Amino acid sequence: VQLQASGGGLVQPGGSLRLSCAASGNSFSINFMGWNRQAPGQERELVAAITRGGNTNYADSVKGRFTISRDNAKNTVYLQMNSLKPEDTAVYYCNAGHHVDYDPSGPVYNVDYWGRGTLVTVSS
Predict the structure, then answer these.
(1) Which residues make Cβ contacts (< 8 Å) with residue 25, sequence separation at least 6?
(2) Are 12 and 31 in contact (CB under 8 A)?
(3) In angstroms, how far apart are the furthest CA atoms of the chain?
């Protein structure tokens, strides 16, 4: 499975961007697709994920501002990012996997595939 991400760039605070990630190859059994991000000097963190059935999960820091959606026919996931803040600046990585585990803290996404990152810079 290959993941091809696009849509990063420079945007002013309060602006919007939409990221896209298309899966190709043997992708028919993929369960979830999502986005993680990594800011300079920080660990990679989950931003949002969506299962094939449409269940979504978001980091608290992006709830109400970001929306993840998926087109199963196209094997493509989208991340609509609104009201962007400077702290959203990071490299965003598309990911996908076959299995989601659940524990009391919430879903655990077992990532099998990573795309190349796309840089999002929020700055005036």
Answers:
(1) 1, 2
(2) no
(3) 42
pLDDT, one tens digit per residue, over 106-115 is 899 999 999 9
SS3 per-residue string spanning 34-58: EEEEECCCCCCEEEEEEECCCCEEE
DSSP string, 63-95: TTTEEEEEETTTTEEEEEE-S--GGG-EEEEEE
Q: Find the range with the poorest average confidence among 6-10, 63-67, 87-91, 101-105.
A: 101-105
- Residue in this structure with the two tokens 């499975």, named with its chain if needed: 1
Nearest to 21 by CA among 63, 71, 62: 71
